[in-house]
Specification:
By secondary structure, the chain is an alpha/beta fold. Helix 8 packs parallel to helix 9.
Length: 291
């Protein structure tokens, strides 16, 4: 590698981490010892495969190795995890060989209120050993049928909020209103970017949703009114540190999955910056960096 490029990459990487450290008041001035205690982080970072929607499974696995990332929220996009059982089995072999573990799938859409259609999607996740289905825009009338399968398969349903454009589930609080008396396997996937655009206080929502929060899609925005203002985590105005503190306070046990939806043909710079920032915030909170 060219030495000038290598040095530039090192400086840029160091700048990202330094910026992440400065996000926490618990961190001393740059150049002084960090406050890392070595305690394992209670926040588990993962990746939403939609981030690499323009890349093949093999390419995404290569990117994940560069990121030191093994936790994947996978979607049936490109060849990431095909619904066809034979093709799915091949994908699962590839992930296992790379040491990548699948913890969620989605968003999966439930357009039909029919047993056969819903069962096929639970079977898809069962074959993959996935315990959380991130459900995109299910109709409220379909939820009782989905609840039946969630009980049968012991797989949780995390309904994804999609912001003000979504007339049914704009906010995780809209999800909570409908599912609060259902089986405890029915809950939320909070997409923080869409939630703030719907006028939701994300930190408060984490506390309100509590044990029904099964997944989180992490991103950042420079404007709470603009979907197009997405940037790398740390470059926007979302309260990342406070979000992590709320997750820790509520004893959240699932994953915070980076879903970087911009620069689809060249996402790695933003992805690297986002993980550097989040890991830096965790270090600033006193935890060992999460890999």
């Amino acid at each position: 590698m060219n030495s000038t490029l290598s040095r530039r990459s090192f400086i840029q990487s160091g700048g990202m981490v330094a910026a992440a450290y400065s996000a926490s008041s618990a961190v001393p001035a740059f150049g002084q010892p960090s406050q890392e205690t070595g305690k394992p982080s209670p926040i588990r970072l993962g990746l939403a495969s939609y981030t690499f929607r323009n890349f093949t499974r093999a390419q995404m696995i290569g990117f994940m190795k560069q990121l030191n990332m093994t936790a994947l929220n996978v979607k049936d996009v490109k060849d990431h995890l095909p619904m066809d059982p034979t093709e799915e089995a091949k994908a699962l072999e590839d992930y296992a060989a790379a040491g990548i573990k699948l913890h969620a799938a989605g968003a999966i859409y439930f357009a039909k209120d029919e047993d056969d259609d819903i069962r096929s999607k639970f079977e898809y996740c069962k074959r993959a050993g996935i315990s959380v289905i991130v459900a995109g825009d299910p109709a409220p009338a379909t939820l009782p049928r989905m609840e039946k399968f969630a009980k049968e398969y012991d797989i949780r349903i995390a309904i994804h909020n999609h912001g003000p454009e979504d007339k049914v589930w704009p906010s995780p609080l809209d999800v909570l209103k409908v599912v609060k008396d259902m089986d405890p396997r029915i809950g939320c996937c909070i997409d923080v970017g869409h939630a703030v655009r719907a006028g939701t206080d994300v930190v408060q929502a984490i506390h309100e949703v509590g044990p029904r929060l099964f997944d989180m899609h992490m991103k950042d925005l420079t404007s709470f009114q603009s979907k197009e203002s997405q940037v790398a985590v740390g470059d926007g105005i979302l309260p990342v540190r406070e979000i992590f503190q709320a997750l820790i306070a509520t004893q959240y046990k699932c994953f915070v999955d980076l879903e970087y939806e911009v620069h689809g043909d060249d996402p790695m710079p933003g992805v690297i910056a986002s993980f550097a920032y989040m890991r830096g915030v965790l270090t600033g909170l006193g935890y060992a960096s999460n890999g």
